[in-house]
Amino acid sequence: MRVLLVEDDTAAVGEITQVMKGAGFTVDHVESGEEAVEMLRHYDYDLAVLELMLPDIEGYEVVRRARAARVATPMIVLSSLTRPQAKVKAFSIGADDYLTKPFDPDELVARMQAILRRSKGFSEPTLRVGPLHLSLDSREVSVNDVPVHLTGKEYAILELLVLRKGMVLTKDAFLNHLYGGMDEPEMKIIDVFICKLRKKLQAAGAGNVITTVWGRGYMLREQTAGRVEKPAETAAPVAAHTETVAA
């Protein structure tokens, strides 16, 4: 999943990025609040993590402007400000969680995963779509409780499809999710990944859960007898930016 990190302290950026990378996240980093607002307005992030004390505008203002622009991206404040008033203000303007520095890496990852799950309509660590189970914590996949062995890229594609079930994802969205704008191969590689992923899931008994929406992309949906889901709107582009770490 792709995260926007808003932090101007170089040492903190290195530490936080390392933690996120270890948990399988892809990170885009900006140092200023103005940059953060623009990135949140123009790209579809799964989560944003931001410091309150930024060099231009406060993190509060980033959250306020984003929410005023109807940006629904979940936001976690990760700040050295510990007073209760700071937390109350952050929550009141639209932040989803607040964690103080110094932070425990495992707690940060756990909070990020919990907010991601809830924002996508899942309440448990294991995401379930029919017989298909995907664990965000262990990055393991099973069908009818039988493990399905996927490559890193195949898992990343399936994770994105599951978390955005019912939404059409373009090939550009997959490329940016997998490569973050760095050394991207030709677009047809997505068709190859999808083909291999489909074969593995079908062989395990999941059925054809990945649907091709001709001229638009791919989507994942549950096979419901007698009912065909209408594809949701195509996802907004996933950002490609500097300081990107591949998942």
UniProtKB/TrEMBL annotation:
SUPFAM superfamilies per the UniProt record, alphabetical: CheY-like
Transmembrane domains' residue ranges: none
Kindly indicate which segments of the sequence are annotated as binding DNA. 124-222
Report the superkingdom from the record.
Bacteria
Protein name listed in UniProt: Response regulator
CDD domains documented for this protein: trans_reg_C (cd00383)
Which residue ranges does the record assign to the OmpR/PhoB-type domain? 124-222
Q: Which intervals of the chain form a coiled coil?
A: none
One Gene Ontology molecular-function label:
transcription cis-regulatory region binding
Q: What Pfam families does the annotation carry?
A: Response_reg, Trans_reg_C
Q: Which GO terms describe its cellular component?
A: cytosol; protein-DNA complex
List this protein's GO terms for biological process: regulation of DNA-templated transcription
Q: Supply the alphabetized keyword list.
A: DNA-binding, Phosphoprotein, Transcription, Transcription regulation, Two-component regulatory system
Residue span(s) of domain Response regulatory: 2-116
InterPro entries on file = CheY-like_superfamily (IPR011006), OmpR/PhoB-type_DNA-bd (IPR001867), Sig_transdc_resp-reg_receiver (IPR001789), WalR-like (IPR039420), WH-like_DNA-bd_sf (IPR036388)
Record Gene3D superfamilies:
3.40.50.2300, 6.10.250.690, Winged helix-like DNA-binding domain superfamily/Winged helix DNA-binding domain
